[in-house]
Design a protein that fits this description.
Helix content: 25-40%
CATH topology of the largest domain: Rossmann fold
Largest sheet: 9 strands, mixed
CATH superfamily of the largest domain: P-loop containing nucleotide triphosphate hydrolases
Number of strands: 16
Distance between the termini: 40 Å
Strand content: 15-25%
Order of helices and strands: HEEEEHEEEHEHEEHEHEHEEHEHHHE
Length: 361
Amino acid sequence: MNGMPDQNDIFEALSQVQDPDLHRDIVSLGMIRNLTIDKGSVSFDFVLTTPACPVRDQLQEEARQAVLGVPGVTQVAVNMKSETYKDSRMGQLELPNIKNIIAVASGKGGVGKSTVAVNLAATLARLGARVGLLDADFYGPNQPQMLGIDRAALIPDENNKMTPPENFGVKLMSLGFFLEGDNPVMWRGPMLHGALTQFLHDVKWGETDYLVIDLPPGTGDVQITLVQNVPLTGCVIVTTPQTVALSDVRKTIRMFEKAKTNVLGVIENMSGFMCPHCQKSTKIFTEGGGETLQKDYQVELLGQIPLDGEICRLAEKGAPISASNPDHPVSKIYETIAKRLAAKISTLNAKAPLELKIVQS
């Protein structure tokens, strides 16, 4: 025996490290790739199930320490990478390059749903995911302004498909690109259905880990079209703390439940006013809306976002706070929410039937 470790020693040590969300060891999950051993130096790729993994640093250190405990190992290099688990039902859409579709919904208007949607998309992109944002709020398509893409030359190619413009790592498609001035959208259900279908199938989204869909408020034609025709990975519900907002949110949750769509969680927006001078939060609405929904419907409260003037200022400039000021306290909240959401999606996909596929990023 020369005292040098072999691959079996290394894999045995790494099999003691468990993914806290998937509740399996990282070796059986296929997360360890390209293991090399050069005398006492060990190097390997650690492939996470999402670039937005909330326990990335923890797992990296646990793996490093596990291998350092193997006799003969003097140095360990852990190369962190990611592959996003794909929702196996995406094949039904004939959109093979889109791995997961997340709807962002609200029971009523004025709760900041579009602001949450764009910041959630921008956060996922900043964490390394490939992200698309579909603005399905056809009566109030604000995402072009919020993402800083006022105009786009959307010229169909020979296959009648359009390339979406991109900013902050987020590809965007919105009816706002096609409207002139203050012209309103005066459409009935069939036209809304057609527009949503076109934005899904006639846009070159490319390789996309997460397609975020900003829905209009309520439970109308767009929502019905979506749940009947699109195998959503799940939806995120945005609410404010007041009781009057919760009554509408309950109806939205019921609609998604009846459509057998996963409710991935609730985000409570405007949970308090963040003073720009002392940075203290003051409750200006009744409290506990998100907690009430979590208790009554067994849905996770993904996070609580305070009112902050910087959010509005940057949104109007077309620079979402989570992308343009990532060190801001609100951006940190969005980062926590995005990581929780990504982990939840990975867990759902890992528990899917055997047709689950892992597609390399």
